[in-house]
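Case study 2.
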Amino acid sequence: MKIAILGSGGVGGYFGGRLAAAGADVTFIARGAHLAAIREHGLRITSPRGDAHIAKPKAAESIAQVASADLVLVDVKLWDTEAVAASLAPLADTGAAILSLQNGVQKDDILKAHLPAGAVMGGVCYIAATIAEPGVIAHSGAMQRLMFGEYGGVTSARGEAFLAACTAVGIDAEFSDAIERLIWEKFVFLVGLSGTTAFYRTSIGPIREGAQQRAMLLAAMREVVAVARAKGVPLPEDFADGRLAFCDTIPAAMTSSMKTDLERGNRLELPWLSGGVVEMGRALGVPTPVNGQITASLAPFVAGKR
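Prediction:
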């Protein structure tokens, strides 16, 4: 497969790097110092699963410079989704599959509004990876899991081909017939983790151990489940309780990228996380007071300091 990585940060850089290191035809779309470093020194991955160095990767500063692709992995920040969606149309018009690994549950609706019917596949990933320095992707922990599928639950040649490409290089991958549910399952946990760690300015440990903080975490996730069920997503009514139990098993120091962005004065993805829950809840008549409280408290910091 010819694969383009639109947004070659922690997630896109890692998965694209693993594929490229094994010889796959991958083009990395990046910008600034990161792009310059990739072009000059190659792309490096440091990981408990094994380091890698792609000495001469294909790299470009715009998706418009990619002449053709079978698959585009989208990993830009959520606020850039609308802007990049239209730029993907030329590739999608010639048959490229568009697979977003971004956070949130509204991302694919935005992409679908700009692209041909059937071009967008659903996707979700579980990984902790960041740009350690320009040209270097640091992967922490052993988890590096991709799940993707066609909306409607059908099988497809492109899905099977991407699954084969991933498994061949040791990426934990699954071609699912229930991708919408899987995206929402992650969203429940993500909204709880990102919202409470940013709200309290701490990691998950003190949140799950304090009675008031733990109650907020559970309530925030329960609101996401209520919104999902109102939209027809088949999550069990007590799904959030299971996610809370999962929170008790993860490292106490675990935090969220939104909390890190808040501390660094960066722009926040809040409008598509807790804010997105509030927006969807309002449209569906589902109360979301806890996510509303989180959204209101973090609203002054959404644009960042830069």
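The chain has a mean pLDDT of 96.
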